[in-house]
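A student in our group prepared the protein record below, which I am reviewing. Thanks in advance; the entry in question is below.
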Amino acid sequence: MRRPFMGNNGAAAAACVLVVVVVTAAAAADDVQTLGGGGNNGSSAAAGGGGRDCDMFQGRWAVDESYPLYDTSRCPFVPDVFDCRRNGRPDAAYLKLRWTPAACRLPRFDGVEFLRRWRGKTVLFVGDSLSMNQWVSLACMLHAAVPAAARVSFTSGKPVSSVRFEDYDVSVVLYYSKFLVDVVDGGTGRRVLMLDSMRDASAWLGADMLVFNTWHWWTYRGASQMWDYMQEGNQTYRDMDRLAAFSKGLSTWARWVDDNIDASRTKVFFQGISPSHYDTSSASKEQEGDVATASASAAADGAGCYRHTRPLQEATSTDDGGGILPEQVVVRGVLGSMATPVSLLDITPLSQLRIDAHPSVYGGPGRDGMDCTHWCIAGLPDAWNQIMYAMLQKS
């Protein structure tokens, strides 16, 4: 018998606050101030337009006055750091952009259809705060679709947060994990990043859809680095090439998926590389832990994502803009080696255009500096979920 998703053995439950909310229909008005699948390479996915296969990650951003898909002020799950409009962002053009693939069209997101299809099931996002970005987006998209007076419960905590649509028996869950592999106490206060260990992963069994993500935290150094040593087997390292470490950790995750996930019962996605938009000097300072200096410098110079209100360009380039990122190469290589089919959400090219979609200086009270890593909600992550929805329609 398949065991149900139980989170982290209940450890997070004591730290969580359960809020039951009665929701109302969130019809988006123009003046509301909110907002390839198949195989293991994500190279193609079916969408509208006669069921043709196409690359849904190449295309253009088009103005759509019916957007955003939901009113963020009516979605109770959005953390302050993503709620750019509530934090004073004055422009709204970034909310009115719809992703349009070059060779097909995306089906309109139907939240009620999604909930009916996944009735009695658990959708689990596992990853860092960029997974949180996508999780919150999907929760808000579904929240806006349910009828008035629907019963929805919200549990907030770490590592587990959950939105449960009681009338459909559907849970949309986030399990917060920076690396997917373990970080353990190595004694004397040393934190050890275990490149070949995934003890927390038992908490992920039982989910019906898994959406994984990791990369962002692998690059950090200095005060922002979340480990003191790396370990693989009996070998301990002060440091190593970060792409090599990422490849080792991701390969451990891939083996776990192959050994533990039944693809006939569980759909698996990997959220691709979400780009940041810091200038080179600011990005270097941020990764070294000097976030405040990097953010202040970028804001003063008008660098990074500060004051950007339009995409860098309208459409993606068919030549990959000069080549894919090295971390994308790692992801594609690891996924391509797996026996279990994993659908890659290759979000990099469409997200690279959206320098306008970050919180920038509108990251909320108590947050210093500028955020050119995460994304405003509503906003870009809604397009990621629309593509995921289209890929699920195909399957």
Q: What stands out?
A: The helical segments are 111-117, 129-145, 242-260, 280-287, 291-301, 326-336, 348-352, 380-394. The longest strand covers residues 170-176. The radius of gyration is 20 Å. Confidence is low (pLDDT under 50) at residues 9-38, 42-51, 289-300.
